[in-house]
Design brief:
about 25% strand; 9 strands; globular; 2 domains
Length: about 200
Amino acid sequence: MYITNMTHVLDDEGNITTKGTKAGRLFASFLAMVIDSITQEYSEENPVIRCYKKNCSGFITTYRSLPDDDILWYCSECNVEGVISHWRETKWNNKENEVLENFEIDQQVVAWMKRLESELTFPFTVKPQPFIKNDFPDESDMVITRIHHFVDDYGLIVELQQVDQTHYLPLCNLEIADRASDNTKLINEFLSWWYSTEDREL
């Protein structure tokens, strides 16, 4: 995973620094496009960002993580991913919203993440919900190894291992194999809370 403090790749005027390697400057330009894309008002005409890696034809998905306000990005084709911090101080930030749009909800998210990390028993086996099952033709066991982060639109993102592959999926897209387990009860409690915060569709 690439972890970048965006201000570290800028010069004193806020432009991408001319120092360092060409590859480093190109990567910084890619991160600038990620910031610009995620902070634009949504439109079907928003530009699509292609993966920066050579020989990869994948597209980049971006989202904001709570509670740390970082931007997360990943390519579903080659699985490269990264985190961008201190993006609000850059010229590519098109938003003027506060760091925490809903402080009360964000504080509850922090509390939930701490509780889940301390009370869940890892690893545990899950299976994809029917609506994403076709994306995972391999029927080998999928095992959640840890909570990865939280994002506005998808809730908890968890890390899964399936044979020799690692996946990152929203918890709400998965079913726990052992429905009578304490893990199931706790996760169902969390999901009930999360769905209620934005009147999301169950």
